[in-house]
Each structure stands twice: as structure tokens, then as C-alpha cells.
Amino acid sequence: MDDRLYPLPGAAPVPPEVLARLKAAVGPRGVAEDPAEIAPHLVAWRDGWRGEVPLVLRPESTAEVAAIVRICAEARVPIVPQSGNTGLTGGGQPHMGGSEIVLSLARMNRIREVDPLNDSMTVEAGVILQTVQEEAARHDRLFPLSLAAEGTCRIGGNLSTNAGGVQVLRYGNARALVLGLEVVTAQGEIWDGLRSLRKDNAGYDMKQVFLGAEGTLGIITAATLKLFPRPRDSAVALVAVPSAEAGIELLALMKAAMGETVTAFELMHEICFTLAAQTMGHEDPMPGSEWRVLLQVDGPGPQGKMAEALEAALGEALERGIATDAVLPASLDQAQKLWRIREDQAEVQQRAGAGIKHDISVPVSRIPEFVAKADAALAAVYPGFRPCTFGHAGDGNLHYNPIRPEDWTDAAWKAETQAINRIVHDLVAEMNGSITAEHGVGRLRMHEMARLKDPVEMSLMRRLKAAMDPAGILNPGKLLA
């Protein structure tokens, strides 16, 4: 059976009397029962995850979330928390069989407070990431979490999956951007941990338990986020480098020359640009260069200072042979065109043919070794595959997505998923890396994580789950096999 289409083992449909209690808890505006309304909550936008539920609940307040959880805990009905439904590992989709309910946080979309002097903002879980960014900008602040889905993903899901994005190098993952949380526990209790403190040494840091837990330990309903001074000056460059090794040397040079102003550093294989041109009409600014780096530096100003410093650093890179060419856009529009090539990679790959997705991280210094060994290992078994490799080299995270050879069918290539995953993930494990750097585990990586992760660590995770959700109602069949 396809594991994207299976029911929860031993689960039964939700009893009608429980459905009636759940509907009463949120009122008519908080319930979706029409199949057309439910449908978008049941499918993933990529890779075929889908399920069945009798209804979708859309609470408007934390109190309503807590009421839903109490009813489900009493009746042992599983809950699938859902935010923007933009995840990539099947963590937000229910199983088949109608034994679960989807709890959508989309209506909980209020910005509760902005405190510019404390550089903090408190928002509900259903606020769209781009809205958080825009609200911060209205107060002359920056919320730096940035990813391709920012116009549709919601902050609760970002925090539940510990999202990454292009600015992790400077600002850290989602968990580094959180000061406090409000969470509904598996028993339906409300934990108000919305403290806006930078220093709090009074016991366990409970918010970290829920960040990155993918809704398996509690349901995040609100968060107090860190804000930063808004950069006044930026500069972008696309740099050709002779090898992946040179790309990492360029990173070291840029950090030494420009310090923490280096905000983003994306290493991309030539194939990413070729396919972007073929499938979406993007212009390739420097054809023929096997590896390129797309980087951005941000600073306090004055205008033009970052561009001058970047040009000087790149001049040194060219002199030393670390770089062979560089393009510095002359306008914001040109810079945005370069970034769109990077941001469109998910759609580019969908159009180019079946690809086997990997979201891995290794120590930054070992990125070239990983790429060389993975390419060689796959080429030995699958000659002609296209190594669409790109990602956040500044923090060791690569999206290593081999695309089928041009003479293969999509179906034939997808049939090799498990074999290709094993080759790539075993290599990652040898390098003491991670098989999921920013996308989360969900259902996609659940069994591979159990295979490769330290047994003691897996035991600790299972004990934590059993202690905090003994009935196993929160997002079951995800993260922990």
C-alpha cells in the first residue's frame, strides 16, 4: 500500500456524537463540512499526500482550540493541526479513513501587540508570514524569516516545523526568532508563555519543546517574535565559482571581509539555472559556469556602502581565483530577478521532470565532499541523472534533488525513491549530518529518521511524546515511527 494513502492503524471513523460536540464548540462559522471546502485541507501541494476527514474545524480563539482538544482527548479522536498547508513532508495532511479531524488555525490571524522598543511582536498562529514581515516594516523593524511560501504559509506552521529560509546564516532558524509561546496542550490546557524576555533562567525553556515538534506535543496558538533593526542598505551579487570547494572558500572570505552583514549565501549548480530558463523563461546571467553563488549583504547604511564593500571583497576573490566572474545588479528590479531564479526552484523542478527531494545538512566544510560523493554514487547507478543541487550553503543546508535522466519516465524515476534516499541519507549519516535540515520529518522522513537517528535520542523523543500526549491524539503517525 502506498504510505501516502493509508489510514491510521486501528483507527475508526469519528463518532457522530463527537462531531456534534465539536461543531457546537466552535459554532457554524468555525466548521467546514462541504467537500469542496474540506478538499484543500486534505492534499499537499507536492508529492501526493492526501487524506479524509469528516470535517475541518476553524476556531477563532485559543479558548475554542482548548475546547476542541478537550473533547478529542476524552473521545480519543486524533487531531491534525494545520496552518498554511505549505509543508513538504506530509506533516499537515490527515490519513485516509476519516478517523481524524483537521484543526485549521487560519481564522486565528490577529496581531496582538507590537513593541518596537522591545523589538518584539505577538501574533496568533494563523497570521501569514508575509503579513508578519509587513507589520514589522510598518514599525521600521525587520522580521527576518523569509522563504518562498511566505505569501501563503502561516507563522504557527513555520514555528511548528522550525522553518529555515534564506537568512538563517545571519538570524538563525525559526526557533531562534521566538521569545515566547502560547500553547494548547494535549489535555486541552492553555499554557500562556508569551513572555517577551531575552533572558529568563527560571527552569526549563518550555517553548523549545514545542518549536519544531510538528504539532505532536501541543498546538501553538500564538507567539512572541523577535524583531531586528531594518537594514537601510543592501547589495546582491551572483558569483561564478570554479567548484563547490571554491564556493565554500568564498563564504569564508565574505564572512572575514564583511562579518555579520552577510545575510544570505546560496550555492547553486548550473542545472538550476538551465532548467529555470527552459521551464520558466528566466534569463541565465552567466551560462557555462558549473557553480554559482547568490549572496546578499545588508547593513545600516548609508546607501551604496554595502555595494562598495561587496565589490572590494569580490575583487579579492577574483584575484585569488576563488571566483571567475560576478554580476552585481544595478537596480532593485535586477536583484529581484536573480532572487526569483532561486525562489522558483520548487516549481522549476516540478516542470523539469520527476525529482527525488532531499533536505539535508552537513558541516559547512564538508559540503563539497558530500556533493562529490553523492554525485558519484548516484551516477554509478543512474547514469545521466541531473544533479539539481542548491541551497543555503552558509548554514550547511542543501536541497539535493536528483532529477530523472531525460530518457526515463517520471514513474520509473519515482520508483527508485527509496533506493536513492538510502544512498543519499547514508552518506549524510556518515558525515554526522541531518536528513532533514528545515522541512521537518512529517511522514516523508519518519522511517528514515528512525533508521538513522541515535537510538537513545529516539527513545528520549518517544518518552517525551508519551509523557505530554499519553493518548496519542496530536498529529499521530507523524515524526515518530
From TrEMBL:
Name of the featured protein: FAD/FMN-containing dehydrogenase
CC cofactor: FAD
Superkingdom to which the source organism belongs: Bacteria
GO molecular function, one term: catalytic activity
Entry's family note: Belongs to the FAD-binding oxidoreductase/transferase type 4 family.
InterPro entries referenced in this protein's UniProt entry, alphabetically: FAD-bd_oxidored_4_C, FAD-bd_PCMH, FAD-bd_PCMH-like_sf, FAD-bd_PCMH_sub1, FAD-bd_PCMH_sub2, FAD-linked_Oxase-like_C, FAD-oxidored/transferase_4, Oxid_FAD_bind_N
Annotated transmembrane regions: none
Alphabetically ordered keywords of this record: FAD, Flavoprotein
GO biological process: respiratory electron transport chain
FAD-binding PCMH-type domain: residues covered: 49-230
SUPFAM superfamilies, alphabetized: FAD-binding/transporter-associated domain-like (SSF56176), FAD-linked oxidases, C-terminal domain (SSF55103)
